[in-house]
Design a protein that fits this description.
2 copies of one chain form a homodimer. Chain A is α/β, with parallel strands linked by helices. In chain A, strands 8-7-6-9-10-11-12 form a 7-stranded parallel beta sheet. In chain A, strands 2-1-3-4-5 form a 5-stranded parallel beta sheet, with helices on one face. Chain A folds into 2 domains: about 100 residues, NAD(P)-binding Rossmann-like Domain (Rossmann fold); about 180 residues, Rossmann fold (3-Layer(aba) Sandwich), CATH 3.40.50. The two termini of chain A are about 30 Å apart. In chain A, about 25% of the residues lie in helices and about 20% in strands. At the A-B interface, helix 2 and helix 3 of A face helix 2 and helix 3 of B.
Chain lengths: ~300, ~300
């Protein structure tokens, strides 16, 4: 069995009973490839592998595969779902939420000014409403931790979620009602035709004044000029962005210098090579037994 | 029944079936006071109240009462223990831990410079060891959440703790061994004669190089010049301090401008007036039934 990989973290990839070919580094016969692992395979690449049994996405979002119009629909596509990845993303969300909620930027400024400014929270924890756009494995994990810390948490998702103390919203009609009750909005959606550009002027207008926005999904979810306009008119109080329409974020982007925007370079949750490899090794074993892993994506819905 | 209070948050205090006297605002007969609630009563004050049935501390640490050499030992002293307070402190700890662990200051500097610097964590979460000095109600609550997020967690406490996946150390002899395995040290100890000054040069020297220190207990736990020396020689990588020997922190303190120190003005966990009042109302009811609340402090050990 030969597996093709293209990710610098996997250049020394070792899988039991498999020869790993790193694309671009080795020659290989297209018909010899049984499995592929990638974030974003070149369009048409998968269709050129006649004996491909399955494709493994190295991250949680599979838009890098399904954006290929020639994706071979007969090939099962497996998402990376892992507790470590969920915990890392939750760490990032907690950090950005708490920097905002606990006014860390305010206290940093007070410290720089040498001032003891004993301000309390602008809004008590139990009155602070955190809303998730997307409540998959990662969102559900994070939501439970935020509920545990005393926040009000809601979520908008394709299917209703039954999480204790979480208010679940479903469907396009409910989106405005969901947004109207959110002080901190988190985008964790899969990127699909339906969700691209969902963080736009209309969405921001539906949020209460002073809301804060966090995008950790994909850059294409956000209409960047709409965010800047909503910040500059004072409707939104701030944003934390880890993903961007173009990465690296171009140096001329006005986001870099915006006082109310925190920028991180797509580091919220990084898959660890060995954890991913263990996951893929287990997944290959399932396919080789003639079964299908639970985390295979529905190609039609991209979930 | 008359209750004496001295806290701006309680100036409108209402307790069922009780008249609340706010000290300094009203005249009162010392013999009319049944209960006192305070953070730090003036030394000798409690001894001047002949009919005092119990004293309620408005916070988790009772050193403001027990530092009074004339504290009337016959009077039960009740600590404030509350899930909300534990969750608020945990929020603060998560924020400071994650700012350090996830390199937020580094990414802030990169953003100011307009640079996309996609650095990974300096240390993976599962290799990062967080150690608690003090594992009471608040420390135990926080420790469990950090374990859940993937950190290695240990604790040094008076009595051994049985928390799943937590490494428990007890007693003076074990202190150095505990410190030798800690990358992020959190002080949550009660302030007693034994613990005052515990964050000193010897303690810092026992930590691995590059360790980070968080003090959210009392300013008197920390020997501030020892901290500055340990930071300046590069042994410690940073500190986050919410409490200080003198509060407000004097403007001439070198801590204000230290590049590796985050200062917050004693805001980590603020007791909420109504939550505290509900707690005290319930506690008074217990005493009036002739019983003793579970959170009465042992005057001899201060725990």
């Amino acid at each position: 069995m030969i597996v093709s990989a293209k990710w610098k973290g996997l250049t020394d990839a070792k899988l039991d009973n498999a020869e790993v070919i790193v694309e671009g580094r080795d020659d290989y016969a297209p018909g010899s490839i049984d499995y592929v692992m990638s974030f974003t395979p070149p369009p048409g690449k998968l269709a050129s592998l006649p004996n491909l049994k399955a494709a493994f996405c190295l991250g949680a979002g599979v838009d890098g595969f399904l954006s290929d119009p020639n994706y071979p629909r007969r090939v099962p596509l497996v998402r990376f779902v892992d507790r470590t990845l969920s915990a890392e993303m939750t760490q990032y969300l907690l950090l950005q939420i708490l920097m905002h909620h606990r006014r860390q930027r305010f206290f940093d400024a007070a410290q720089r000014a040498g001032q003891w400014r004993q301000e309390t929270l602008q809004r008590r924890t139990e009155d602070t409403r955190i809303g998730f756009l997307g409540l998959g494995a990662i969102g559900s994990f994070a939501a439970k931790r935020l509920i545990d810390l005393g926040f009000q948490v809601s979520g908008w998702s394709r299917t209703p979620k039954d999480i204790p103390e979480l208010k679940s919203f479903t469907g396009d009609v409910a989106l405005a009602a969901f947004l109207g009750e959110v002080d901190i909005l988190i985008c964790l959606l899969a990127l699909t035709r339906q969700t691209a550009g969902i963080l736009n002027a209309k969405t921001f207008a539906a949020l209460p004044k002073g809301a804060f926005v966090i995008n950790v999904a994909r850059g294409a979810h956000l209409v960047e000029p709409d965010l800047i306009a909503a910040l500059d008119c004072g409707h939104l109080s701030g944003a934390a962005l880890d993903v961007f329409a173009e990465e690296p974020l171009p140096s001329q982007s006005p986001l870099w210098a915006h006082a109310d925007v925190t920028i991180t370079p797509h580091i919220a949750a990084v898959s660890q090579p060995q954890v991913v490899l263990d996951y893929i090794r287990d997944g290959i074993a399932v396919f080789e037994r003639g079964e299908t892993p639970a985390t295979v994506v529905d190609i039609n819905t991209a979930y």
